[in-house]
Specification:
heterodimer; A: mainly alpha; 3 domains; B: mainly alpha; 2 domains; two-stranded antiparallel sheet; 5 helices
Chain lengths: 259, 103
């Protein structure tokens, strides 16, 4: 399925590159892709986005089940975890808030941690904004459809995003997240300890799969290394979430030189 | 209203505001070439940070455990161009087996 996603990205509208799984090749093909009237590669649309989001939805189910089990174990009951996944729809923030409440932290601390963890949506939203449609309010509404995987999948690599493709890619993940949470919350501890089952590795693996698509040139690799080092060095010093936001500073490398 | 429900409500509102902030600030304003280059590089920086934090940290501590081996297995599977679900399975199996052996 991953291969399909590659082909979707690389092939889709520029046939000669179909099946060229290599990231390098994908990038070279993207440069010569046909463009819309705005001079950008076309938006592949909702359905193509949903297909590309499908394999990530499988990983999201696993994460959702883990969250449901965790929340149930922390005394949230069955309904609250499902409502939480529906209205928050952000795994990392929900895990952070639930863990802090579970460790005896207060509402303020739990909320603040979730805000830090989700603060990455601020730079991500700034990046996405020019690619959305309509006025400020409509764009703000459309931005609610942004999650990590769909943001990365819809990223054309030239600073613009495929608007409908992004929203399409989010839909299967939303269904998977709520469904997975429901399964985990209902089953609770009967599924076993998510950690013993190795499910806590799904989160970093999910992002590694997305990252593999981003190594386009030497500069993006350098930025990745610097971003990783910034995050790693800040982990012991700052509240969770801040290291990830600070890693964005590595992207300032783009201010120098030319493409 | 219990602490759990209050937290859910606050986190939901905060997340929505964070996602809305960029578009509310920028509107239909288009960014210049330098800002665009920076934005292009946001993805590798953010995603690497999320991988690193998820693989080797717990809370504010650096923790090297079976997760790192699982992520390494996923990396090898990606280099071999394995389908995404195989990559995921490799990570989960490696982590789970190592934890079984350790316990």
């Amino acid at each position: 399925m991953h291969g399909d996603a590659h082909a979707e990205r690389a092939g889709g509208w520029y046939g000669p590159c179909a099946g060229a799984g290599a990231v390098e090749a994908t990038w070279r093909c993207a440069v010569s892709a046909p463009t819309s009237e705005e001079g950008r590669p076309a938006d592949r649309g909702y359905a193509a986005g949903a297909r590309a989001g499908l394999p990530f939805a499988v990983a999201t189910v696993v994460l959702g089940v883990s969250f449901g089990v965790l929340a149930r174990q922390l005394g949230w009951g069955v309904v609250a975890p499902i409502v939480c996944s529906t209205v928050v729809f952000s795994g990392s923030a929900q895990f952070a808030a639930a863990s802090i409440l579970g460790a005896g932290g207060g509402v303020g601390t739990a909320t603040l941690a979730a805000v830090f963890v989700n603060a990455r949506f601020l730079p991500m939203g700034l990046a996405l904004a020019p690619s959305l449609a309509g006025g400020r309010l409509r764009r703000a509404l459309e931005a609610q459809g942004m999650v990590d995987a769909s943001w990365a999948l819809a990223n054309r690599g030239d600073g613009s995003f495929e608007r409908t493709f992004l929203i399409g890619a989010t839909v299967p993940q939303l269904v998977a997240w709520i469904g997975g949470t429901a399964v985990g919350a209902v089953a609770g501890g009967r599924l076993g300890d998510p950690e013993a089952l190795g499910l806590d590795v799904v989160f970093p693996t999910f992002f590694l799969i997305l990252l593999a698509e981003e190594f386009r040139d030497r500069r993006s690799i350098a930025v990745a290394v610097i971003g990783g080092l910034i995050a790693l060095s800040l982990v012991p010093l700052t509240p969770p979430g801040i290291p990830v936001v600070a890693a964005c500073l590595a992207a300032l490398l783009g201010l120098w030189g030319r493409e | 209203m219990s602490a759990i429900w209050l937290t859910i409500a606050l986190v939901a509102v905060a997340s929505a505001v964070l996602k809305a902030a960029g578009p509310l600030l920028l509107g239909d304003h288009q960014l210049g070439p330098r800002a665009t280059r920076v934005i292009t590089l946001l993805a590798p920086a953010l995603l690497t940070a999320l991988v690193v934090v998820g693989a080797v940290t717990t809370g504010q501590q650096l923790v090297l455990d079976a997760r790192l081996a699982g992520v390494a297995a996923a990396g090898i599977a990606l280099l071999l161009r394995a389908p995404m679900l195989v990559v995921l399975a490799a990570a989960i199996l490696t982590t789970a087996v190592l934890r079984q052996l350790a316990s």
